[in-house]
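Model the whole thing, not chain by chain.
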Amino acid sequence: MDLAVLGGSSGLRLAEAIGYRLGVPLTRRVVERFPDGEIHVQILDSVRGADLYLIQSAVIAPEGGLLEMLLLSDACRRAGSARVTAVMPYLPYARQDRRATGREAVGARVVADFLGAGKFDRVIAIDLHSAALEGVFAVPVEHLTAVPLLVDALRAGVARDTVVVAPDLGAAKLADRYAALLGLPAAMVHKTRESGSRVRAGAIAGDVSGRAVLIVDDMISTGGTNEAAVAALRTAGCRAELDIAATHGLLVGGAVERLQRLHPRRITVTDSALHRDLPAPFEVLSVAALLADAIGRLHQERSLSELVMHA
Ligand code: R5P
């Protein structure tokens, strides 16, 4: 079975880097909008019998990106691909994984069902908002982690008396993971979300007084969570040295400026969901090698154990 790599509109940059690492030229395709707004796709190279990996990081206007994936998958299947894998380093709607208050949709489940229409054989994702999200998909989900990649980049810069902070309860396990890999203690901020962009930080569990801080999370969207956490940490007497790290840098609206105003030394994110260049003190790590490694192993039916997130 030949290996094929195909990039969706918002996964093209990553797909090129992955294809380069695997020594596979990208499968050529057309993705265009008809005048009435409908998406039209066409695969230009033969994919008959191929083990095909479709890379898409649907973040901005995820609805279009998701539909595009279904169309591309359908085109590949009809053109004879033997296996189609959806590679979604960042899974949109992942935060809607439960009904937090009343009469809401479970968006993650709806998106998983929608993707089901693409008849993907499996899904590859990185640092899902919650590990349990694997269960909303009917097909196998390979849940990779970029934490070791981030930790390697952070290791040299963090002071010995740093505390790793989860800015909310949902990030507590993640903070423990970073802390264990860095040999540092962990703490957690209690957060209440008031709206999509406004959060309130309350009590802190753990000792942060007089310590440098590394805040870690699965994603940064508006930057509100980090802003609230930093205010609470500074009130609690942490030192000024601040580092921030997250796998998915969505960085919507004025998030970049909002985070810069916190005067961190470094903000480390990956390119899993990134659609722009970032100014200092942002540092962007690429997940291309991680994804290429995973794809290479899957193609050769080899174990993924070293690359996956264990809950
Ligand atoms: C929420 O539970 C997530 O893990 C992040 O903390 C949150 O989504 C970040 O969003 P924002 O940057 O908009 O506060």
